[in-house]
Every structure is written in structure tokens, then in C-alpha cells.
Amino acid sequence: MKMKLKKGICLLLACVMVLSFAACGNNSSNESKPAATSGSADDLSNTLVYAGESESTINPLLNSHDELPDLIFSGLMKYDGNGKPVYDLAESSTYDDATYTYTFKLRKGIKWHDGTDFSADDVLYTYNVLTKDETLSSSITSNYEDIVSMTAPDQNTVVIKLSQYDAAMMDYFTVGILPKHLTEGQDINTMAFNQTPVGTGRYKFVKWDTAGGMIVLERNEDYYDKVPNIERVIYKTVSNESTKATMLQSGEADLAWLNSKYADSFRKNDSYKNIDFKTADYRGISMDFGTEFWQNNGDSIGVLNDAIDKEAIVKSVLDGHGVAAYSPIQLNRFGGNKSADIYSHDLQKFAEEMAKLGWVKGSDGIYERNGEKFHFTVQVRDYEEERVDIANLCASQLKAAGVDMEVKLVTKFDWDAGYNGFLSGYAAQFDPDMFYKNYVTGASDNTMQYSNTRVDELLTNGRHTKEENKRKEIYQEFETVYAEQPGVVLVAFLDGCYVSVKGLNGLDTTRVLGHHAVGVMWNIENWTLNK
């Protein structure tokens, strides 16, 4: 089976390299580009095989937390190693504080991967989709609700006017720009482009082999900045966590994000490297307020924290590669207010708080109130072993305390099945405003229908406050208010445990990574691979 997979990759790469050599014949004059290689088609020595995750779309407007859009597309801005927005497609900008207006000057001479000229029209088109297309099914539209108008005085200038000051706007200008000439007039949610993307970024899309479970990219020899050293990236679409570890062990992958236990199994093997990143990625039990149980019992979510031994979960499930969680932004530079850490693992306190809330244990040891058992269901994807372990341990601890959390294993999340929640993961690795879309009432990624008037006020004020110290005060107050009435029982923040082959160099752990440890390839143009 392994030999068949390798032969399949070789045949595919033979086609890729023929196309690549034909397209790159006139690029020798660019001094920033690495020298072309002349290896045979079955030479994988400069091809990075990455054991990634299952994918359905490669569109930065629809897929906002994945490596692939950042490799293929570019934004007006991009994030540097410190998580700060810096210029990308834009070469400069000005901001008029009186009118809340950004004016971007675009780099000249940039081309889409199909050879078409990039221009201001593409930028206007993309932001019009984000702000005006009511059919767009995207989790990020709340990030752009302050934009009121966009114009292009010429093909190298874009003017974007806001309704008010937005502290996180430069962060959101990092979203990948779509090519107007290839996507205009189509349904952005379902167009074929989502599986055959064309961008301006460091790597070009070549092929999506759904049967073989891989997406093939080749480096963009016409990239306007530093051209990557690594020629090709084969992104394997893998769901099962154990499969990723097996692929590394068998030589079928060069890099993978693994759960902590699998990552630890490589730590004493000199043929591999363990590269540990800090992340802002939390795991928690997210409650669905669209279900009747939490509409009736939402006042009893916070107290569940007292019944869960989070430190034990970090130690056992995460092998110590993480920290106990009390706030969704506790690892953010604006967060970490210890006054929000109001819960401890204290079963006596838990029992006292439950009594105050009117819960009484029934004959079976499960709490009851108003004729209703404290029983709720939480869905967990069965292939995410670490999440399953976290959910099961939480369920065991809650059951011992008198709460029946039933873990439902699913192949994919089913939002219409009536489950009362799910084992969630989210991150605000950059500006804390990233959680505006998750927690503000009616916002674009508030899928659990959480609503708290004071949280709405604080997150709105945080977005529209300029002075950083004041913003920090606002977000730390948000932490305390949210802790008192949470929508998520936060359990732990995870470290980003990556494992690579010994010959992969250049990964930079400076940057705090996001959900699913996304962002590892932020500096891939500087990586080298020898295998």
C-alpha cells in the first residue's frame, strides 16, 4: 500500500514538474529567486509533504483558519513573526483620523498565478463581497461591519472609509484577496474556484487529488517577495490523528501537527525534530443556547468549572503541554486578568453553589431542578482523539459530582441534531477583537447563540477604543464579566506540538499560533529541506 502511494505521488509530480519547468523558463533574471533544480521527476528531496487536515474549500473568505489560503493568497497586509500586521500587497498606507479613512498604495507589477495583472479592482471586489454580498456564508463578516465605502482613484490605490475607529482593522486587512476576473458573478460559497484556487501568494495551486487525499502546490517563481526555497508542497488531507503520526514514522510525511501524546513518542528519536509552539488555542465545552436545556439552565454553566479538575486534564491528556484555562483571552497580550479566575476544583464549593441555584440530587445521584435532570449532550468528532479524551474525562468528573454530560461521538458536527453543545476549540492569537464575531449577540461566528448585554458592550468598546492601556482595561473587564456568565466551560490551552523530519530547517517559534496550531508556515519562504 505504501509503495502504491509513493508511485502515485511520483507520477503526479512528473506532471507537476513538466508544467513548472515550462512556466519558469524566463525567470533567471530575478536575483531573489533560488536556482532551479534539475532532479528527476521522482526526486522528492525538495518537496515538503505536510500531514494536514481534511479540507472542503480553499477560499480565504470561507476558510479563515487554515495554512493553505495563506500560502496561495495574499492580503493588503500580512502578519509578521510577532503577530503584527505588516505590508504585503500594499506597499504603504495612510490613515485620516478625522474621516476614519485608510488609503493604500499597492505594489506594482504583481500578477495572479494565471498571469493576469493584479489591481485595485480585485481589492474593491473582495471587500464588496465581504461587506455587501448577503448570500455569503462566512464566519468573518463581522470583522468588516465598520466599512462604509471603498473606492479606487487609480489601479494602484485603494481608499477604504470606516464609520468609526476600529482598533483591529489593520489585522483584518490581512484577509486574502480574490481575483475578480475569475470569481465575479459566481456563488462564492459553491463556485468551482474554491477547489481550484488562483492567488498571488508564495505557492500556486496545481492539483487536488481527492481520491489520493492530497493537494499539490508549487512555488510561485514570479512571487513579488522572497521566493521559497522549497519547490513543492504536498498537503495531505488527513483526519485521523494516529494516521498523521504513522505517516511520519513511515516516511510518508515530513511535517505534522500532532496531539501531545503522539508528539511525545518522537522526542527521543534522532531522526525527527519536535518543534513546540505556543498557541492561543483553547479547548472547552461550548453550550448551544439554541437548545431548550440551556435556555432554561444557562445560569448553571459557570459552576461546572468547580467540578472539573483542569490541571489533571492538562497533566494526563496533554502530557503537560498546555495550561488550565479560565478566560478565552488569558494568553492574549490584553488578557490574563487573574480576577477572572474565579473557579477552582472544589467539589464542596460546587455542591454549595448548586444548592443556591436550586439543584437537588436525585436518587440516582444526578442533580434535578424543576423536574428536569441535569443531563446534556456534547458532540465530539470521533477522529480527534485528544478532544475525545478531554470530553470523556470532563464527563467522568462531572458525573462524579452529579452532572450527566453525555458524550456523543460523530463523524462530523451535526448542528441540526439537537445536541446541547460540542467540544470546541477557538483562538485569538492576534488582536482580542478576534472574539467579537464569536461572543457578540448575532455576530457572524456566534454559532452557539450566546448573548450577554454587558459582554456586547465591552467587546464593542474594545473594538472602538484607540488607547492601548484603556483597551486592556476593557478586555480584562470582559474576562471577569464573561467568567460570571460563560457560554463555554473552558478547560485548557494547548501547546502546538509539531514534529518534522530531521532535514527540515527554518521553522520559527516566535509567533503564537492559532486554532489547530495554524500559522506554522508563516515564514515558509525561509525553510530548507534536505532528505
Number of helices: 14
Q: Total domains, how many?
A: 3
Percentage beta strand: 15-25%
The helicity comes to: 25-40%
Q: Uncertain spans, ≥5 residues at pLDDT below 50?
A: 1-41
CATH class of the largest domain: Alpha Beta
Classify the secondary structure makeup into a structural class. Answer: alpha+beta
State mean pLDDT (0 to 100 scale). 92
Computed Rg? 24 Å
- Biggest sheet statistics: 7 strands, mixed
CATH architecture of the largest domain: Roll
Account of the 3D structure:
This protein is of the alpha+beta class and about 525 residues long. It has 3 domains: about 1-75 and about 200-275 and about 495-530, Periplasmic binding protein-like II (D-Maltodextrin-Binding Protein, domain 2); about 75-195, Dipeptide-binding Protein, Domain 1 (Dipeptide-binding Protein, domain 1, Alpha-Beta Complex); about 280-495, Roll (Dipeptide-binding Protein, domain 3), CATH 3.10.105.10. Helices cover about 25% and strands about 25% of the residues. It has 14 helices and 24 strands. The protein has helices spanning about 1-25, 65-70, 120-130, 170, 180-185, 240-250, 260-265, 290-295, 310-315, 345-355, 385-400, 435-440, 455-465, 470-485, and strands at about 45-50, 75-80, 85, 90-95, 100-105, 145-155, 155-160, 205-210, 215-220, 230-235, 255, 270-275, 280-285, 320-325, 360, 365-370, 370-375, 375-380, 405-410, 420-425, 490-495, 495-500, 505, 530. A 7-stranded mixed beta sheet has the order 8-9-10-1-11-22-12. Strands 4-5-7-6 form a 4-stranded antiparallel beta sheet, covered by helices on one side. A 4-stranded antiparallel beta sheet has the order 14-21-13-20, covered by helices on one side. It is globular. The protein starts with a helix and ends with a strand. Residues about 1-40 have low confidence and may be disordered.
